[in-house]
Amino acid sequence: MWNWLETHLLEPFASWMLAGGAFFFTNIFAIVGFVLGLLIIRRAFTEKRSPSNFFAWLMLVLFSPLIGVPLYFMFGGRKSRKNTRIKLEVAREAQALINDEVGSACAHDIMACEGRGMVTHGNHFQLLANGEIAFQRLCQEIEQAEHTIHIATYILSKDETGLAIVDLLIKRAREGVAVRLLLDSLGSWNQTRTSRHRLRQAGAEVAMFIPVLPLQTQTSSNLRNHRKIAIFDNTTAITGGQNIDMRFLGAKPDADRFVDFSVVTHGPAVADLNRTFIADWAFAAKQSPSLFKDILRYRPDEAGDSTIEVIASGPDMPDDPLWEQILRIIQEFKQSLTIITPYFIPDEVLFRSLIVKAHTGRHIRLLMPLKSNHRLADIARYTYLHQLHKAGVEILLYKPRMIHAKLILADGQIGLIGSANIDMRSLFVNYEIGLFHYSSKDIEQLTNWSNKLLADCITYEEALKNSDLMPSKFAQDFVHLLAPLL
Prior knowledge:
- Helix content is 47%, strand content 18%.
- By secondary structure, the chain is an alpha/beta fold.
- Strand 11 (363-369), helix 13 (375-391) and strand 12 form a beta-alpha-beta unit.
């Protein structure tokens, strides 16, 4: 009897349970993946992604949810709600000062106060034209700081340049200066463990911005702090695109050093840079912005005749103010526009705006390195360059070495410098900083700097004739599909 029950009842029942269980678990994973995919798609809609970026993630999540969903949680987030709250706290701490400034500034230019940074007058501007000059000035400011040194950088290397700056910071911290160093966890990956320990032993504070490993953080590992800001005694700032690394800065000339510059700012604009640094620091160091009330309320005295607008952009902003301002410049310039960028992977709106403007006969010059330090970015740009060339854009490729500078000049009236590249990562994902210059003397210096590059450039037509320089059509098309995720 038992054999009969086992053969005719228990074994079929067990087989049915196993098959049903496998079917259940297979489908429950698919259902959970699909539901998570829908939630992610809803979140992507609320983050106001560019269409190309949105559809790249959409295809990955819907067709392979078990792969796409974890990848999105690790690398796909575009806004940080926690950092946004910190930013609002910083704004509240400085509200009295902001109200005073808004009252006077908006009376003259209402557009300067509507969803943008604050336009400040009475600033001093100085261009640091290369990596040697910038390194010397950075060391000088660290040596001369009386009470506060705040530095945020994407990369701090353990090379000769990085160690020299660390040694200076240790020296000043031991002398009683308040030193705060903010490093991006990805940019300074595996470079700073010893330096951080030495700095903390000397009394300096060091914070790492968003851990690289997703299990270490409550926000996306994709959100990187790409800003470069150094502020001394809350009155003097050095900003630009140069990292603390021998490729960017150094005591001695280097034939392979990237072509780049920084700028020194004195005056009221430094207050906006202070607030940006404190917001980032409070987020990364898990400190309350209320600890920095005096700094947030401090407004440096006027120091010159430069008019400057500071605009911070990134996951701590509800919109994309730096992208909006660049788009506005492209759409409103009347005669000439120069864009210098190391990488060129624009979103569709910005790209089409350049084409439309070129079709109206306006002169647009796009200057970038012939070969950058990122091969995929070089391949991805050619699909865009081909169409811009057909539209009449002047495309120049700098031959001698890597250009890392970021500069936009429009009609001799606007100059934009800072940390942002013309690519979708900088404009929509990274934490970036931009300084808009509106004074003729500032713009003249920036224009003269850019004009010195022209003699060492070749045209896009010349590059096309060299098969060794141009990637294959298949490579261009394939990498173009990945461009929104680069």
